[in-house]
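Apologies for my clumsy wording, but could you write out the amino acids of a protein and the tokens describing how it folds?
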Amino acid sequence: MKRLIPTLVLLIVAIGGFWYAKSHNFFREKTDDVKALVTTVKADDVQDVSLQTADGKQTELQRGDGASWTMTKPAALPVDSNSVEGWIDSYNALTYEAKVEEGADLAKYGLDKPKQLYKLTMKNGPVHTVRVGMPLAISGYSYVSVDDGKTVYQVSDQTLSGIGKAPVDFQVKGPVKFDYDKVTSLSLTWKGQSWSLTKSDKDKAAADASWKLGGKDMKGADASPVLSDFLALTTQQEAKPASSFNMTAPDFSADLTETDGGSSKTTKYVGRIDGDNVWLLKQGDAWAYAVPLKSVQDLADKGKQ
């Protein structure tokens, strides 16, 4: 009898493990491959987008005229419309790996008060909803329900990360915009240091033209990275109203001239140092952007080369 005790103990443990796994849906039927979680929507038919992410942040976006979008919550930040279109693409790409339960009590899975909630309101009225509840016992997955349905799905957190975006993810990332081939000069002043990049062959594309940096001749292949560094003055922080900053005597200034069909236009950019950032804006615009000070310094150092 004593010899049987270890075997009985192992059997009891195995039965207990099987019951626990079954009660947590470890043995639910798997689909052959991942399946579409939502009904595909046309981006042009979406009127409003609402996000409540796991950290409690809420973002609301509303379609304006044509393809433009505005942010109504948490603030009226400048919106990059392409980022909204990209988010809708990510929504359409949502998939699930398994159905956990049909006709479920949503509260059992934390879906009555979801930690994440995503809504798309269509122009013709319907509202599509994705609710994210508790995590599964299996790491990296969460319980999800769609619209008003009571079917619960297993969805990977990696998949959900495609729609779990913060307000700054929809924001325009910086003030600098230009057409490379139309640029004829860039003049910069930073901490008492000034230089100018000037295009010698004004009718040629930027990469094919000859340039001068200061008094030094430069090929287009060497001038283009300078312009790229200027264009790359972007932020990962939320923008602030330009009126928040006194730019009477800026720490940074740049004049960019573009020529098109014999007509030239110069755009002025100014910036103010604030810790490890430079708040940069285009004169006349409503928003300023926190650009890393190091990025500005690296651009200014191009004039030493």
Observations:
- Residues 8-14, 16-32 have pLDDT under 50 and may be disordered.
- The longest strand covers residues 263-274.
- The radius of gyration is 28 Å.
- The longest helix spans residues 4-23.
